[in-house]
Specification:
The protein is of the alpha+beta class and 91 residues long. It has one domain. It is built from one helix and five strands, in the order βββββα. It has a five-stranded antiparallel beta sheet, with helices on one face. Strand 2 and strand 3 form a beta hairpin. The longest helix is centred in the last third of the chain and has 27 residues.
Length: 91
Amino acid sequence: MSIRINAGYILTDSVHVGETEFVMGVHSKAPSQFVTWACKNGTDYFWGHYFSDPLLAMKDLLARANQELAFCMKKQENARRGREKPDDPCL
């Protein structure tokens, strides 16, 4: 696996949920050494949350992924009930 870097942060962890990836990165010289981002298409990073504590960053990474998972599960349930298209990216 190749090393991924965004804005000087080395990406150390990632979680994929549907078409969204959530990543965590570390930068040894940044004031906030840890970050989490949402990512689309492997290169479009957005909604950065910055931290000085690695455990808080990991907690945020997992919370963001869990929130997206809950959203996808709700969409899936709505599709089963005929309220949404079954070809939705979360499904």
